[in-house]
Automatic annotation (TrEMBL):
<dbReference type="InterPro" id="IPR043502">
    <property type="entry name" value="DNA/RNA_pol_sf"/>
</dbReference>
<dbReference type="Pfam" id="PF07727">
    <property type="entry name" value="RVT_2"/>
</dbReference>
<feature type="domain" description="Reverse transcriptase Ty1/copia-type">
    <location>
        <begin position="1"/>
        <end position="124"/>
    </location>
</feature>
<protein>
    <submittedName>
        <fullName>Retrovirus-related Pol polyprotein from transposon TNT 1-94</fullName>
    </submittedName>
</protein>
<dbReference type="InterPro" id="IPR013103">
    <property type="entry name" value="RVT_2"/>
</dbReference>
């Protein structure tokens, strides 16, 4: 749903004056200015004023704000629950009780001018009906971290990447340039592992607040394909490859020590984060997409080769990509 003219709902806390609008000035008092009482578009604080007003209104309907994600609200009534997600002026309602969802939507319409955006969602679903994420697996949060060493030719900075999966599908992923230059692959991997660990701690706290994943009480496992980065986190030593690493990157060791995360080894070919940056073959890329839970239902169903929850093989991976047929060797591929 979309809140129409959302920023006009907020109230101004500061003293703000504006000139009288042309054509709306008071005759004989054109030299006077207006004392602004309500928020308008163009004010620096317009979005904040709207958010404060919305927060006050929604709390009055017994919604509770999430401490870790302030744009998420929750309302519980017995076994029924409704989650409300606010993104600027767009609202998403999720719940397990249709009547409770309907009542919440009807109440929102009495508080704000609301436009239903379900048609936009349906259009998106229609355009992407053959490619989608499939969830259905272990209800355990696990992450994968990786780094591309000096991938930027201009400033020779490296790239950090991470992917987090829950219930068989990806729930978070990021690829970003590191803010400092490094002189070894191992250092780049260590920094990337820290970024993944920070995301893991945030997700752990957020999911614990929701209370829907019992296993989140255990340390979140973050997989890395660099032996040195894992060894440095588990048993720090003074070494020529690590003694210069900035102190702020040693936060990873502290997170592990507190039991928030655990670093484990994974082979490079099984590291799902590889697909976010590293140039891969079509087959390898499609296999990683399959591990993230991404499926091309039309291609898989027509081929009959892959189950909806299976990881595609090298042949089947071509179908995830939308290629017409599994790979077959050409005559010039043969070796005498």
């Amino acid at each position: 749903m979309d809140v129409k003219k959302a920023f006009l709902n907020g109230f101004v806390e500061e003293e703000i004056y504006m000139d009288q609008l042309e054509g709306f000035s008071v005759v004989g008092e054109e030299q006077k200015v207006c004392d602004l009482q309500r928020s308008i578009y163009g004010l620096k604080q317009a979005s904040r004023s709207w958010n404060i007003h919305f927060d006050e209104v929604i709390r009055g309907y017994d919604f509770v704000k999430n401490d870790f994600v302030p744009c998420v609200y929750e309302k519980v009534s017995g076994s029924s629950v409704v989650f409300l997600v606010l993104y600027v002026d767009d609202i998403l309602l999720i719940g397990n009780n249709i009547k409770m969802l309907g009542d919440t939507k009807a109440w929102l319409c009495t508080q704000f001018s609301i436009k239903d955006l379900v048609n936009t969602i349906l259009k998106y679903l229609r355009r992407t009906k053959d490619v989608f994420l499939v969830y259905g697996g272990k209800l355990i949060l696990e992450g994968f971290s990786n780094a591309s060493f000096q991938s930027d030719d201009d400033d020779v900075k490296s790239q950090s990447k991470f992917v987090f999966k829950l219930n068989g599908g990806v729930v978070a992923r990021k690829s970003s340039k590191q803010d400092t230059k490094v002189d070894s692959t191992t250092e780049a991997e260590y920094i990337a592992a820290l970024e993944a660990a920070k995301e893991a701690v945030w997700m752990k706290n957020y999911i614990q607040e929701l209370g829907v994943v019992p296993s989140i009480a255990e340390p979140v496992v973050v997989f890395c394909d660099n032996n040195w980065a894992i060894a440095q986190e588990k048993e720090p030593r003074s070494h020529h490859r690590s003694k210069h690493i900035l102190r702020r990157y040693q936060l990873l060791r502290e997170m592990v020590g507190r039991g928030h995360v655990r670093m484990d080894r994974v082979s490079s070919s099984e590291n799902t984060a590889d697909s976010l940056r590293k140039p891969l073959s079509q087959i390898a890329h499609a296999q990683h997409l399959g591990k993230m839970g991404l499926r091309n239902h039309h291609m898989e169903a027509s081929s009959g080769l892959v189950g909806m929850t299976g990881i595609p093989s090298s042949d089947n991976a071509r179908l995830v990509l939308g290629l017409e047929e599994p790979w077959q060797p050409h005559t010039h591929d043969a070796v005498a």
